[in-house]
Write a structure and sequence with these properties.
398 residues; nine-stranded mixed β-sheet; 11 helices; Rossmann fold; 2 domains; globular; alpha/beta
Length: 398
């Protein structure tokens, strides 16, 4: 009877979480994949705030050679509020997909900003077996930004990343001046610190055992995905990054403790930075007032900055037009001056020629007095012609 009672007690005891070598490396580079269908992205054409919008889907090749599924949302050309519009590139988390970014679509579009979303390799509908928590993903962001820049009508670019996407944003942004503003929701600062924290949450082990287990996991990951997890330190990029930035972190994040955002904030080089701590956990929906603050931030640095640049460009165009007008007028005046100068010289030459003809005539047998009178008359004519040339020269100098 006692044995049966003990067995029942064991059945009632909660099962302790099991952690294994395979669980560890899969947790890092092969988490559960977000599965969805293309129809989940919504219609390719839709109306919103009195405008007609389009969703354009693209296939791009990642830095590792995998097919990445992408979507771009923008107004139809006849509904564009401006010829040049900024765009937010949304970077999703490790077990997520571009659907995550589409959840922000309406908030973004109503601020006259377009949205570009995609599935990282190893996520969603993109090719690839593994992720790298920002290591390879940072190279994929460059592929996307290079593509976005070539889309007609694209202006300033902002990055908005969450979890893995936030770490990727931190790693990448300092390398690209085209990125004008960044938002990082739930980033980690140093993967070595994060890995130890995650293991300790699963099972109580001495530090030396944790270190030993992580070394084995490190070798496995390096072999499978060419990723050295010891080099996965977004915090190394923080002192080199200057774009205006917002950090967001939940107070009860069970996966990445919010002290990671605090570490990044303290190391961040940019002066325009803010930390918004929100209520919730790692995957909870962010409060509306936080999303509003984020959108105000992006509007200020992507839309308002564009308006200032457009105004400066308009002024430059006006200055250029004014300069061209002045240049045209100057060329016209120069041509008139050249024509007038040519006519003056021609008239002077005609007058001098006539005088010389008079002097060279031999057919009018003049006496001495008449000769003197003729010489005086000739000299006066020459002087008048010379005086006229002097006057014309003076006009040209003036």
């Amino acid at each position: 009877m006692e044995d049966k009672a003990k067995e029942k007690e064991k059945e009632k005891e909660p099962e302790k979480p099991k952690i294994s070598y395979e669980t560890l490396w899969k947790l890092i580079i092969r988490p559960e994949r977000d599965k969805y269908q293309l129809k989940d992205l919504g219609p390719s054409e839709f109306s919103f705030i009195g405008r007609k919008y389009l969703r354009k889907d693209y296939d791009l090749i990642s830095s590792e050679g995998y097919l990445m599924k992408c979507s771009f949302f923008e107004p139809e050309i006849s509904y564009r509020p401006k010829k040049i519009m900024p765009v937010i590139l949304y970077l999703h988390g490790n077990s997520s997909s571009r659907l995550e970014g589409i959840g922000m679509l309406k908030e973004i579009l109503k601020r006259d900003i377009n949205l570009f979303v995609f599935d990282f390799p190893g996520c969603g509908l993109s090719e690839g077996e593994y992720i790298s928590l920002g290591y390879h993903e940072s190279h994929d962001v460059k592929v996307i930004v290079d593509f976005i820049e070539k889309i007609p009508g694209v202006g300033a670019i902002g990055l908005w990343g969450r979890s893995m996407g936030a770490a990727t944003t931190m790693i990448y942004s300092h390398k690209d001046e085209r990125i004008k503003a960044i938002v990082m929701d739930s980033p980690f600062a140093d993967f070595n610190i994060l890995a130890k924290e995650l293991v300790l949450k699963q099972v109580k082990l001495p530090n030396f055992l944790i270190q030993g287990a992580l070394k084995i996991v490190r070798m496995t990951i390096k072999k499978k995905n060419d990723l050295d997890i010891e080099k996965l330190k977004p915090i190394d990029s923080a002192p080199k990054t200057f774009q205006p930035a917002i950090f967001i972190h939940a107070n009860n994040d069970e996966l990445i403790n919010n002290h990671h955002s605090t570490m990044l904030l303290n190391a961040y080089a940019g002066k325009d930075k803010d930390f918004k701590k929100v209520v919730g956990n790692h995957n909870s929906k962010r409060p509306n007032f936080t999303i509003k603050k984020v959108m105000e931030f992006f509007y200020d640095y992507l839309v308002n900055q564009n308006i200032k640049k457009d105004n400066n460009k308009d002024n430059e165009d006006k200055d250029n037009i004014f300069y061209l007008d002045l240049k045209a007028e100057e060329e016209k005046n120069n041509k008139n001056d050249e024509k007038e100068e040519k006519e003056t010289k021609q008239n002077s030459n005609i007058e001098l020629t006539e005088i010389n003809k008079k002097l060279n005539k031999n057919d009018f047998n003049l006496n001495n007095e008449e000769v003197k009178k003729q010489e005086e008359s000739t000299n006066n004519d020459i002087k008048k012609a010379e005086d006229k040339n002097d006057i014309n020269d003076t006009k040209e100098i003036k």
